[in-house]
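Students often ask why we bother predicting the structure of a whole assembly rather than each chain alone. The short answer is interfaces. A chain on its own may look different once its partners are present, and contacts between molecules only exist in the joint model. In this exercise we take three input lines together and write out one structure for the complete complex. Read the inputs first and try to guess which parts will touch.
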Amino acid sequence: MATLFANSATLLGKELRTEFRSRELLTTTIVFVLMVVVLFSFTFDPSTAESRRFGPGLLWLAFLFAASLMLQPCFLREQNNDTLSSLRLAVSDPFAIFLAKVGANTLFLLVTELLMLPIFAVLYNVPVLPELPWLIVVLFLGSLGISVAGTALSAISAQARMRELLLPLLLLPLLTPVLVASTEVTVGLMDREPSVQWKGIGFLVVFDLVFLTALWLFGEYLLEE
Amino acid sequence: MNSFKLPPTGLRFEKIDKRYGGLYALRRVTFEIAPGECVVLAGRNGSGKTTLLRVASQIVRPTAGKLSFPGRDTAATGGNGLHGRPGYVAHTTMVYDELTAEENLVFFAKLQNVEQPVERAGELLREVGLIDRRTSPVRTFSRGMRQRIAIARALIHRPSVLLFDEPATGLDPTGIAWLANSLRELNKAGCTIVMSLHGESEISTLATRAVRLDAGAVVDDTNSGASLRSILNFGVA
Amino acid sequence: MTKRLLLGIVALLLVIAAAYASLYLAPEERTMGVIQRIFYFHVSSAWAGFSAFLICFVANLLYVWRRDQKYDWLGVSAAEVGLAFTTVVLITGPIWAHPVWGIWWTWDARLTSTFILWLLYVSYLLLRTLVEEPDRRALLSSLFGIFAFLDVPLVFGAIRWWRTQHPSPVILGGANSGLDPTMKMVFFFSAFAMHILMIFLVMERYEVEKMAGEVEVLRREVEVV
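Now the answer. The structure tokens for the assembled complex follow.
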């Protein structure tokens, strides 16, 4: 068990170091989300009431689209020089590889989302400061769900053709529950009288646990050759 | 290299099949390698040498059959302690281009619970002659240097079994001489070596045994009387 | 061969009988009139489709565990048949909705969830077309199939909880609260007939897949030579 966490930490360190050296994944993801959010704002006339109702959904949709693009290099990168094989050789529990990647992806998504939040607040005239702590909670739980499912499916799509289209195709229907629940909680938090939707939070926790468990049970088969 | 002794470990292939769709890359491969042997796998391209090495490294899971490592004291090595998995050098470096040579080695050392990972990485960089490029990203390396970093990565955890897919590729004569010497030292320390070769070279002189594959099956073995030379040369067109 | 033929005939007879029962034996529903009879067809298709997906899930698990090709054949057969029945549900939904409520699509929880279910299994089949090597295809699609099926209750849950705030017509009318005994009998008979039909179709599709699998093995062997 200790080795699992130690390995995951080492692997996470490598993921973060690789990304911060080039920062290409983060920058392209942030710009993409920004573009989607701005484009969405052109499609309707955001009165304050409408923004509160529709804004969160559009925001989460933007995050989902961005994630389905951002998650592609996840396992594709490991095909360069066949580093996936050396990882599998070096690590005793392949779940460590997944834990590290899920951790890194969740972190990247979270950073993107937190950077987008003030921009969204300004463009759509929606207050985000009052319930910021809870917003961070739902952003985290939602991003975790997106990352777990996305990392698993990225391992699948990396082994198929047309992977650029395939990953979104596999991922988006699967993440419908996350979209719905996260949106609901976020709407509640951005309402004129903000409230915390406990049902939604609980639901997201369940989603995250179900898929983390599935990844734990089946992860090694995703990497098999 | 260090004068440590490695726990003697052999390899046993029992009726190994590897199928890709209708194609059998390996067919009922059955033979055993004794601890400390230096074995050459010979055969044409596509005969299954690479696949067999990947099965031996446990990267590839056989469709049927069993792989075991007789002689390995699993209690001492545990899941992936020192000497755990075989060291494997393939056609690709299996290291990260964006990280430096040192970062790569420290990373792999840490994953495999190698003691004093930084020192061990330095030790290996010195041995493979890359010490003055320790802070260079691997993507700046030449073909020969890439081969050397791949070897360093494979040896980081002091494996008792070393699997080598065409070791001489990318090395100049000096490099080949150095590699032959290193392999000799490792073999002396007790490391079981299995390498695939195309033909005779300074490296093939190290071999104590040769096995030839053709179309995924074992067709010749020095253990059954064939000469080393005949097996090695048969493989060459 | 004859066993399957017999099953096919039985299935056909049962479906005809169920159709007859739905059209003539069941009493007419008070508010909706004749069109309500489509309910027997619509809901039984949904149940049969879902059972097919359950078979697919079990086949997927068995494949990952046993690696026997026949489980892969069973999985794809069940998925396709399930998709066919689900398509029927999605088509009969609007056919029912339009004359009764004047709208083509109702964002009814069940219908919406069924749509996502449909998308998930379309993705499953799409994934299969994008992986050439048969063993890899079987493994990857089985793993995706497992993830997809685990997602299904989450999809239904999320949509039922949060997407039924629109005043949508309840498809089953007063069905859940005390269905007329004759209606109940006709419904269960229809469901039974649909299941027999489903099993027959899965078996037929399995035979085709089995033949295709064997041909592919032969073809690859010939290509090598």
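Check your guess against this: The first strand of chain B starts at residue 11 and ends at 20.
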